[in-house]
Each structure stands twice: as C-alpha cells, then as structure tokens.
Write a structure and sequence with these properties.
Length: 394
C-alpha cells in the first residue's frame, strides 16, 4: 500500500502547530496539519491576553483579531484590598483566539502547507527507511488514514501532556459573559488561597459589555468555584468551557528521535499565569526553521538547535517563573494580604506599571530590587514562603 509522504506531519492545528506549519512550508518543506476539531480555532479555549508588541516579533495578530486594549490590571486580595497597575504602556491586548488561529491557518496554507480538519492523530509508529507512519481517524467518514513523514510534530497541547502523564495540569473553567460591573480595558485577578489554591480567578473584558471570566485552583471543582465567584455578580452567561491550564514548565526534551514537541505539548506556557500564546508561536517558528535546516543539511542533530534557541529566549525567565509559582503555592491568605499591601506601597505600583508583560518574573524582581524583596520576605508569615522569596535574590 502506498501512503502520501510529507517532510512533517503535525498533530494539532492551533497556535503552535500552525506557526510551525507556516514557517516550515515557507522554507519549502511538505507539511500536513491534522486537527481533530472540525474547524480551526473552535471551540475557543483561551482568553487571548497577550502582549501585541512581543507577539509581533513572531506573528503579529491582524487588526480583525484585536478585541480590546488593556489599560490596567487590578490585583484583588482575599479581603478585598486591591492594587491597580497601569498597563497602557505595555501594549497588552485581548485577541480573538479563533480569529488568530484562522489567520495562522490562512498563512500556513498560503505558504503551501496542507490542513485536514476533523482528523484525529491516534498513532505514530516507525515506518520504512527511518520514516514515521502517522495514523489518523477522520471523524466524518470514520476511516483510517496513514501518512509517511520524516518528522511528527506533536502540537496537540494539553492532551499530549496528559498522554505522557506530565504533572502540572489543573482544570480551569472559563465563561464568556455579558455584564455591567467590569470596565473595558480593566483586567482583574482575584487571589484567594482558600478559593483558588495556587492560582486565581480572572476577569478579562473584551469590549461591548462582554468579558472572559475564569477560575482555577489546585484540587477545586473549577465550575463550582467560578459559579460561586459569579454568585454575587450579575452576569448573563453566553458560553461555558472547561479546559486544563498547564503550570509545569518546559519539558526536558523538545525533540525525541523524529518526534518534535511544539507549544503546550513542549510545556511552552508561563508557569505563573498559564499564558502560552507567545512562547508557543515562537516555539513553532523556531522548530520549523531548524527542521528545514536539518533536512536540507541531512543532519538530524541540527534539530537540537530548536530547543537551544527557545531556551535562549525563554529558558531563564520560565525557570524564575517556576520558582515564583512554588513561592505562591506556599503563601497563606495572610501572606497574600501582605504581598498585595506591599505592592500598593508608593513607588512600587508605579514602577510595576512599566514592567514587561511576558518577562514579568525578571522584571518584577529587578523592579523591586534585592532590598525590597528581602523586606517583603520579612513580612511573610510562613517560613517556606520567607525562604522561597529570599532565595530569589541570593
Ligand atoms: C482557560 C484558558 C485560558 C487561557 N488564556 C490565555 C491567555 O489569556 N493568554 C495566553 O497567552 N495563553 C492563554 N492560555 C494558554 C494557551 O491557550 C495555550 O498555551 C496555547 O493555546 C497552546 O497552544 P498549542 O498550539 O500548543 O495547543 P492548543 O491551543 O491546546 O491546541 C492543541 C490543538 O491540538 C488539537 N488536538 C488535540 N489532540 C489531537 C489529536 N490527537 N489529533 C489532532 N488534533 C489534536 C486540539 O483540538 C487543538 O486544536 C489559556 C489556556 C486556558 C485553558
């Protein structure tokens, strides 16, 4: 039996897989993307908060993707104390994730990549002459398709992490709601270690009286938690989505033989906020470029440069974010109150307003400086939290 052959078959047609496909196809590779959903970008599982400036270094979202511009971010403590940080200078926007994925799909197709929707990858096995055989089932016909390829690119996101039993995934619930108590441009996070242990609830207005609202926490029922958050706030719920967020940091090896992990399946997601659009798009482009180089040179070892390049840009920051995450998990609600109070102190909030959205862990520490960070550590209650914060400046 003869199968169609590709340089790369991609599992998952979302931000990571489509960025890869666009870059690899533009460099002459024969690429096929298999997406299990019937339509790229649907259902929308992400809230689309992203730094336009940073994303534009990779693939700028077109104007039709922009739903709103973020002017401020407010952090609310468990007791209701809040600190508002200006964000106008950061060029953070809320994008329509579905529209952005459509944009990426159009770009990938225009460069020559092929896309099959409604096709679920269910097996990757060694094939003849060092190739891989990728098996996919088409939901429309229930038939099985097989493809030969030099590389399989796993861009299947959280399902890949689940399949490999990676820890760090927590369930999140997100609703799109209509309401009149949030203001366009004003993103809010709500910290409470009892209600949202280790994470938070969030409100991301997206214009026209709509907002994307979500909640996640270690060991909590995210839907119940979000319903309880909304019980004192008047909203009309338009959509409800359950989707896991990943906080475990990058995986050890982005390339395993002829399988290349891209996007969330490679752990390219911020361990603090679970934002993964930027690092996944960057990962897709880098993997596409190095695969083209590697195949042109006939040297598989060149693929290692994909991880090296991604690490060079994001590695240090993601490690720091992971340490901040560990610190946050150790905080009690009293500690959280003290942190929010410290952030509200004169000078700190204004300095934080101009920090980097995507490299916020380094920016936060350099803004606070060693002295303020140690002062902060001294007011925390739990010994673990004190130690974790102190270790950041050592
Ligand atoms: C509730 C929530 C809110 C978020 N908000 C933000 C935010 O505001 N900003 C931000 O930067 N990040 C956010 N993220 C994170 C962001 O969505 C992810 O990091 C990003 O989508 C990862 O992209 P990806 O392409 O790697 O994977 P995904 O976007 O998860 O895409 C994986 C794709 O693979 C497909 N697939 C899965 N299995 C198969 C299979 N076997 N065969 C074929 N196809 C398959 C899926 O259908 C999907 O299309 C949020 C995540 C969640 C859950």
């Amino acid at each position: 039996m003869s199968y169609r052959r590709y340089d790369a078959v991609v599992g998952g047609g979302s931000v990571g897989g489509l960025s890869f496909a666009m870059e690899a196809a533009s460099r002459g590779l024969k690429v096929l993307v298999l997406e299990e959903d019937k339509q790229v970008g649907e259902p929308e599982k992400c809230d689309g908060l992203v730094s336009r400036r940073a994303l534009s270094k990779y693939i700028a979202p077109s104007e039709r993707c922009i739903q709103s511009t973020v002017k401020s971010g407010t952090v609310n403590s468990p007791s209701g104390r809040s600190v508002t940080l200006g964000a106008s200078r950061l060029d953070v926007v809320v994008i329509d994730r579905s529209a952005y994925e459509e944009q990426l799909a159009e770009s990938a197709l225009s460069k020559g990549a092929e896309l099959r929707t409604g096709a679920r990858v269910n097996g990757v096995v060694p094939g003849p002459a060092g190739d891989l055989v990728v098996t996919a089932s088409a939901s429309a016909s229930a038939s099985t398709e097989r493809y030969l390829c030099s590389y399989y690119v796993d861009a299947t996101g959280p399902s890949s992490l689940v399949g490999r039993k990676r820890s760090g995934l927590i369930p999140a619930a997100k609703y799109e709601v209509e309401g009149d108590w949030f203001e366009d441009g004003g993103v809010q996070v709500f910290l409470d270690q009892e209600k949202y242990p280790g994470f938070f609830a969030w409100v991301i207005p997206r214009g026209n009286g709509l907002a994307k609202i979500g909640a996640a926490g270690l060991g909590v029922n995210s839907f119940k938690t979000l319903d309880s958050f909304l019980s004192t706030r008047k909203v009309n719920i338009r959509t409800r989505v359950a989707a896991p967020i990943y906080l475990g940091g990058p995986i050890d090896e982005f390339v395993l033989g002829r399988t290349v992990f891209v996007g969330e399946s490679a752990g390219q997601v911020k361990p603090t906020t679970a934002g993964g659009i930027l690092a996944s798009v960057a990962g897709g482009l880098m993997a596409g470029r190095w695969m083209a180089e590697s195949l042109a040179a006939g040297d598989p070892k060149l693929m290692a440069n994909y991880q090296k390049e991604w690490e060079k840009v994001f590695g240090k920051e993601f490690r720091l974010m992971k340490r901040l995450r560990t610190l946050y998990q150790h905080l009690s609600n009293d500690d959280v109150e003290k942190m929010v109070a410290a952030l509200s102190s004169p000078g700190v909030a204004s300095k934080l307003s101009s920090t980097d959205f995507d490299f916020h862990a380094s920016a936060l520490l350099s803004t606070l400086g060693a002295r303020t960070t140690l002062q902060l550590a001294s007011v925390l209650i739990s010994v673990e939290a004190k130690n974790a914060l102190t270790s950041l400046v050592e």
